[in-house]
Design goal:
It contains 18 helices and 27 strands. It is α/β, with parallel strands linked by helices.
């Protein structure tokens, strides 16, 4: 932490600060801090997911070391809505935060379920339910919810009123005249806020590159109603588990086509049950179990599954790999991908679709038919928002650099006075008056490694990545008191060559490391560290010459 960041531990009384620790320069893992009058307020606490670059790591959270260190100034956590990239880290990070949480009833239900699923004692968790549209205070912050449409019920924009100015934090939102679940966006509240005066808008950038309007959930439901009667065998629809509006659209279309619905994937069942408990999904009572669905005629079933992003452990990938305990699909069945491809997941999704096609299944994607509408505002909606709110400053978040840049250009065309593109770890003064970066703090990533959260910059994570890319060479050498190798080296090579080439490579490595030992001064052979270094260099050099790889090398020295 640099000199200026040390001064930034306690937010000032005469300014309002913004500090993203996740979600700026990336899609997912939203974690934002606002600071004023000696207090920090967290908005959202989300996750992202691992891929082939993070072996053994399925779930990733922001590195929140900064706010843990300054927890004495933490007033609370406010959640905009119930998607994983906004609530998924709470059950992992709350024990280190121990602050009150504020959320709408549906989002609070999802949070409680997550805490219980992680076997976290919920007794000490102060989880306050606030109705959509409520106005309430958290320390120095006067908070108002503005209900918006999104793909999950009770999504809210946040108005943060402080002595130093007013900020609109959009969360995920859109303008949808017929959202299927919940109310339409509270446009009059947004217009009134613009008349009141907005110092800054901190806004979702996901669809900043998408022209026009995001579309209505009704359009997706109408497409399912048209499509389902044309499919003769089993129908499988994969979507995000938290997209309750999509689950309802699929269920209504299935019923109209004379089909029954089942859910495949634990997270789908948990989210659907929560929606049912809050009155949003009465269709839940009619859903079949997975076993009942498999016993039903193929032309009478619609399955909704997790795994639309190609996640290796999700239900659809397990089905495609014939590894699911209940579900088995047959040639002639149809799989509908009802989601957008999150940037970075393209290869995993293509691999999954190829596996499904190899089983004789038909695939329908949004490229083939309008089976998905986005839950995020497109350009026309963003422009309308800035026309109404007239902010002095825009900070585009929740997007990669390309999304943020396009969002910034759009805002300038919409006559927003100034734009700052934030990066994780920057403490930004929003106002009043001057807005600027005042300090930077560490901002990284923690990965869930089994049951342990560890930094992805830690040696264990780095070594595992090296192992996955370059393999392992483990060598044991036995030396006597005269500094001589008295037995043949024991060499294990993993992830490097096929069994047929293993012995030849082991022989070359053995010869090279013995030559390296012989070339060492006798005095150096008695130094274990020097011996290990010389042997490791010989092993890595030989393998690089033979197969072009530089493996992780582990050398053990035994003295007799």
């Amino acid at each position: 932490m640099n000199r200026r960041s040390k001064q930034a531990r306690r937010p000032p009384d005469d300014a309002l600060w913004f500090l993203p620790l996740g979600g700026s320069g990336e899609i997912g893992m939203n974690f934002n801090l606002y600071g004023t009058a000696g207090q920090w307020l967290i908005v959202d606490c989300g996750v992202t997911f691992g891929d082939e670059t993070t072996p053994g790591i399925d779930l990733i959270t922001p590195d929140i070391s900064f706010i843990i260190e300054h927890r004495e100034f933490l007033a609370g956590l406010v959640v905009t809505h119930g998607h994983e990239d906004h609530i998924g880290a709470i059950s992992y990070l709350w024990p280190q935060l121990k602050c009150p949480i504020y959320a709408t009833p549906f989002t609070a239900t999802l949070i409680r379920n997550k805490l219980a699923y992680q076997n976290l004692d919920t007794a000490p968790v102060c989880l306050y339910e606030k109705a959509p549209g409520d106005r309430f205070s958290i320390g120095a912050f006067d908070i108002e919810f503005i209900p918006v449409t999104h793909s999950v019920p009770e999504s809210q924009m946040l108005v943060l009123r402080t002595a130093c100015g007013t900020v609109l934090h959009t969360g995920d939102w859109k303008f949808d005249p017929d959202p299927i679940i919940g109310n339409t966006t509270a446009v009059q509240k947004i217009k009134a806020l613009g008349a009141e005066g907005v110092m800054a808008v901190v806004a979702d950038s996901t669809n900043a590159q998408v022209e026009g309007h995001s579309g209505s959930e009704r359009e997706a439901q109408d497409e399912f109603r048209n499509l389902f009667p044309t499919i003769k065998q089993r129908i499988v629809v994969t979507c995000f588990a938290s997209n309750v509006a999509r689950i309802k659209s699929i269920a209504l279309a299935a019923k109209a086509a004379g089909r029954y619905v089942t859910l495949v994937g634990r997270s789908l069942w948990r989210n659907a049950e929560a929606a049912h408990a809050c009155g949003y999904l009465p269709e839940f009572d009619e859903f079949l179990s997975e076993n009942e669905a498999m016993l039903s005629p193929r032309d009478k079933i619609v399955m909704i599954t997790t795994g639309c992003q190609g996640e290796a452990r999700a239900a659809l990938a397990r089905i495609a790999n014939d590894d699911h305990p209940e579900i088995e699909l047959d040639a002639g069945d149809t799989v509908i991908f009802s989601s957008r491809n999150i940037p970075g997941n393209e290869r995993a999704i293509a691999r999954l679709q190829n596996n499904l096609i190899a089983l004789g299944l038909s695939i329908i994607t949004p490229d083939d038919a309008p089976v998905h509408v986005s839950g995020h505002a497109a350009k026309d909606e963003m422009t309308q928002l800035y026309t109404w709110t007239k902010p002095a400053l825009l900070l585009p978040v929740h997007g990669e650099a390309r999304h943020q840049s396009e969002h910034a250009a759009l805002a300038k065309r919409a006559a927003v006075k100034d734009v700052m593109i934030p990066q994780n770890g920057q403490i930004i003064r929003l106002g009043p008056g001057i807005h600027e970066v005042v300090a930077e703090v560490p901002a990284g990533r923690w990965g869930l490694d089994g049951t342990v959260l560890r930094s992805l910059d830690a040696d264990v994570a780095k070594n595992r990545k090296k192992l996955s890319l370059n393999g392992l060479a483990a060598v044991t050498i036995v030396m006597n008191a005269k500094g001589q190798a008295v037995r043949d080296p024991q060499i294990s090579l993993m992830g490097l060559v096929d069994e047929s080439a293993l012995n030849a490579l082991q022989d070359k490595v053995s010869d090279a490391l013995l030559d390296a030992i012989e070339a060492m001064p006798k005095s150096a052979r008695s130094d274990d560290a020097a011996l290990r270094h010389a042997v490791a260099m010989a092993v890595r050099r030989t393998i690089k010459e033979q197969i072009g790889k530089k493996p992780v090398t582990d050398v053990h020295v035994v003295r007799i």
